[in-house]
Each structure stands twice: as structure tokens, then as C-alpha cells.
Amino acid sequence: MKELWKKFDEIELTHSSVHHLMAIFDLLQIHGYVRAVDIANYLNISRSSVSITIRKLKNRGYVTEDENKFYRLAAPGEQLIQTVLTKRGIIRIFFREVLNLPDHLAEAEACKIEHLLEEETGQKLMSFIGLYLSENKIAEDFRNIRTDFNYHCDTTEACTNCEADCYFASHPFEIDKPLRRTE
Amino acid sequence: MKELWKKFDEIELTHSSVHHLMAIFDLLQIHGYVRAVDIANYLNISRSSVSITIRKLKNRGYVTEDENKFYRLAAPGEQLIQTVLTKRGIIRIFFREVLNLPDHLAEAEACKIEHLLEEETGQKLMSFIGLYLSENKIAEDFRNIRTDFNYHCDTTEACTNCEADCYFASHPFEIDKPLRRTE
DNA sequence: TACTTTCGTTAAATATGTTTAACAATTGTT
DNA sequence: AACAATTGTTAAACATATTTAACGAAAGTA
Q1: Pair A132, A180 in one domain
Q2: Which residues 78-117 on chain A approach chain B with CB closer than 8 angstroms?
Q3: pLDDT score at A55
Q4: What is the domain range of residue B118?
Q5: pTM of the model
């Protein structure tokens, strides 16, 4: 069970491969066709690298190619990038609208993790955002106090995420227990 | 600027290396010492793999070794795993207490992304949790309606995170704009 | 038609992380 | 002391992702 950390490597497609698929998706919308060289320019990598990666994606059934070597997304590829793009959108909105990260950072952070999180996480995050950003009076009140609230600490403890009078300094060993009494 | 996706590879230490550091941290607490074979057993990988990875971590100044090849974390290593562990804790609490993910999933998801997110993201997430889980009356009210709220959709649209009457279906192109009017 | 450019692929190289096998050195046991 | 087990390292191998260089084929141009 301590092999939890290895799950990172069990991700079906790498970050790189996912972006090859997304490049195909984007370029199809922009130009209506995609060749290897288009992907290479779009991602700013070499044609050879694209050639090799796409071959793998074809073998795995994510991409198809016509007689002129113009690419299409096969159904699994289409499906996969839809889920990734949806997750990215949700994560980005969360980072920007809930955490108030600057948009460029929200986007970069979403890009790094979009393909790593499970669908369930994406769904639950959307569910949360659905309420948080709603017209519901209580949600509105919460957003309003959230605007002014800024949790901060000032110690010199090891913890660098916040520094002193820290939330975790005062709840140091409670990570394994529910924080709120759930009665 | 479309090289945003390459930031994934600019992460200073790999997932694997970070876990080697965390293994040292854990094992020092458990046994008071750490040898290569201890790390290998703890992470369930071969001694050779550990030997190679640790050599790199020594060269980069994250790990030191005494005359008997017992390891210690150097200051940068200590500092790094503190930030990673803190981020993991925050993320895990968020997933479990805010999104209501089952704990095993919250933990696995946190493990996958803990080393990828910036410190700023960790801080902002902690700030959010600090309010959300507080005794503040409005926060309590919000938590209460949150308990019952479950956003759900039922379409057959491409989006697989939710399906129909979808939050994003109704706000399809607004990802690039603020969702809430910020007046 | 002949020359040039573009394009896809392959080969060889680099870099990371991993494995197994072999080896040397140390430690434990009898 | 002699044999056995444990430990760390290195070498060779594999897998992934990337690069540059080279090559061949197709397309565009003169």
C-alpha cells in the first residue's frame, strides 16, 4: 500500500502525449487538418519527436491517419481530450475564481495537473464550484467574506507555505483525522 | 507563450526524486538512520535504483552522507520536503473536507500533484481552507448547504465530467472571462 | 525538366528512471 | 578463521521523451 507514490507513473498517457492530442484537436479547429509538421510548430518541438510520439498514439488507437498522412482523433482520443479539457477548465476556474490566483498562474497550474486528476475529482470540483459561484444567498455571503479574508502567518517554522500561528502548526497531527467533527 | 505545457518538465525534482527525499525523512523519524537498502525497501524498488538516484541528490546538495553511508537531508532537502509535505496536507484536506472525496482518493490525488503546484497555490489554498473550515457563522452556513448540494447533469454531450444542463454547457465560452461580475 | 523546399521517418545521441546481474566490501554466524 | 548474508556500486539493458543529422519522397518553382 506504500506503493501509492507509484500511481504517478500509472497514468495512461504522459503529459507530452496528452498535449500532442490536444494539439491535434486545436489544429483541426483552426485549420481543419493536421500534419506532423503542424503539431511540431504548434508545440515548438521537432518533427521527428512528433513522428515518434504520434506513431505510438496511432498504435494505441488514439489517432488515425488518412492516405495523405493527415491526422484525426479516433474516438478514444476524442473522448480523452474532452475529459482533460473539461478538467482543465474546472481547475482553472477554481484557481482563479475561488483561490484568486492570477489567471496566468491559474492556467499554468491547471495545465500541470489536468491529466493527473481522476474524473471523480473533476466532478466533485465542478459540484463545488457550481455552488460556490451560484446565486444562492449563502454562497454569495460566503464569497463576500472570502474577498476580505486572507489567512496568514508569521513564524519561522519549517513550514514555508505559511509562517507562524500556522493553521497546521495548531493542528499538526490532525491530517489523518477529520478536521470538522462530523456529528 | 504556447510553451506553457513545457513547464511540466521544468519541475526541479521529479516525482521519484521527491519521494526518495520523503523516504529519508520518514525513515529518519522511524529508525533514526537511513541507508540505501532502507529506502529501497520502503519504496519497494531496487538498491541500484536508489543508489543512482541518491547519488544525484547528493550531487545537487539535497542529501548528505556520513562515513558509514548513512544519509541525512541537507538544508535544501529538508526545506523542500517540508514545503511538499505541507502542500500535500493542504491538498488532501481540501479534497477530503471540501470536495468530499474518500480519503484514500484524496491521498492518492494529493500525492500525484503535491510536488507540481507552486507555493503560492499552496498558500492560497490554505487561506481558503482556513476560512471554509472556520467557526465563522457564514462559513458554517455555507458548509451546511454544501452538504446537501450535489451538482449534476444528464446530457450526452462530449463533456464527460458532467453530462447535460452542464455548468459549462451553459457557460461554454466563459472560461477566459471572469465568471462572476467583479463589480 | 531540373532545382529547391517541405515533409515524414529513421538513426544516433542525450537524459531520466528503472531493472537484473555481477562484483566487491562489509558484517554476521558458526 | 571460514563461510554466508547483507550492502552499495557499477554495467548492461529497457522504456520514455527528446534532440540533431541524414535520407528519401513529394511538391513547388524556375
Answers
A1: no
A2: 78-79, 82-83, 86-87, 89-90, 92-93, 95-101, 105, 107-109, 111-113, 116-117
A3: 92
A4: 79-148
A5: 0.83
